[in-house]
Write a structure and sequence with these properties.
The chain has eleven helices and ten strands. The chain is of the alpha/beta class. The termini are far apart. β1 (about 115-120), α7 and β2 form a beta-alpha-beta unit. The strands form two sheets. Strands 6-2-1-7-8-10-9 form a seven-stranded mixed sheet.
Length: about 280
């Protein structure tokens, strides 16, 4: 059953007025920077009706009042419910090919003085992206003794960050990964699950982070993956976000975005050098 059809079945369970939907849109914009249109109304109903049932509320009006009161930590649950978390290992493979072929080898030369390499997965979801980055690092660098190489993985949704940190995935999620990679980087931990091996997981640090709030890290980052994240933001929020990314990168470093996203008329600190691959300008 699709999310839309499930919503239809539950349509009479809770009342959601236009005022309620507008209030929810404003709350998610304020707390997450996400701009929701009327087209997302059924999706919002379907995801949040589960919270109403769990909280034993009778209407969305009551739920809005709870959120606005700031009590009980429900705002984080609300944001988690709305956030979309579609991902897979080595999604948009051309980015990982570019990372392996061009970026990682050049960083050994460019960063010889500091022997420090930092890559950020901003919007890491359940961890497939940062672990894919870490696998490529191991394939290119091996153990790389004497270097400090780390992948920072952040996401707005605290629940998916917690799941990602375990490094455990159903075997079906590994089906499209070549056998050589599966055998090297995963260990079967049960009849239907596999775990990321320590040589990969120890490269990755997971943190919960709201991109529209202050950032604790100072960079610099040699590469940033921010893919299929800004499509949920309005243009002004996108401009602010990419400006902040640019301040954490130096000339020649790279930014990877989603195939349906662009920096055109959004940010002039980067140049397009390939399919959804951008390079920081001087």
């Amino acid at each position: 059953m699709t999310e839309g059809s499930a919503t239809a079945l539950l349509a009479r369970q809770f009342e959601m007025t236009d005022e309620d939907f507008a209030a929810l849109c404003e709350l998610v914009r304020r707390h997450a920077g996400i701009a929701l249109s009327e087209a997302k109304r059924d999706l919002v109903y379907g995801r949040l009706s589960r919270r109403l049932r769990r909280l034993k509320l009778d209407s969305f009006r009551e739920y809005c009042e709870l959120l606005q009161s700031g009590q009980g930590g429900e705002v984080q649950e609300f944001v988690n419910a709305i956030t979309t978390n579609l991902t897979s290992f080595f999604r948009e493979p051309h980015h990982f090919e570019h990372l392996a072929r061009e970026v990682l080898p050049s960083l050994l030369r460019a960063n010889e003085a500091t022997r420090r390499i930092r890559i950020w997965s901003a919007g890491c979801s359940t961890g497939e992206e940062p672990y894919s980055i870490a696998m490529v690092i191991r394939e290119v660098y091996g153990q790389l003794t004497g270097w400090d190489v780390r992948v920072l993985a952040t996401d707005l949704d605290s629940s998916v960050v917690a799941a990602a940190r375990t490094g455990v995935y159903p075997l079906e999620r590994l089906e499209r990964i070549p056998a050589q990679r599966r055998e090297r980087f995963f260990k079967v931990s049960g009849g239907d699950a596999a775990c990321i091996v320590p040589e990969v997981s120890r490269l990755v640090t997971f943190k919960q982070l709201n991109l529209i709030e202050p950032w604790p890290m100072r960079g610099p980052f040699d590469a940033i993956f921010c893919r299929n994240v800004v499509i949920y933001f309005d243009k002004e929020t996108q401009r602010t976000l990419f400006e902040r990314f640019a301040h954490l990168q130096s000339a020649g470093t790279h930014l990877y975005i989603g195939h349906s996203e662009t920096l055109f008329r959004i940010c002039d600190h980067y140049e397009l050098i390939g399919k959804s691959t951008w390079r920081r300008l001087p």
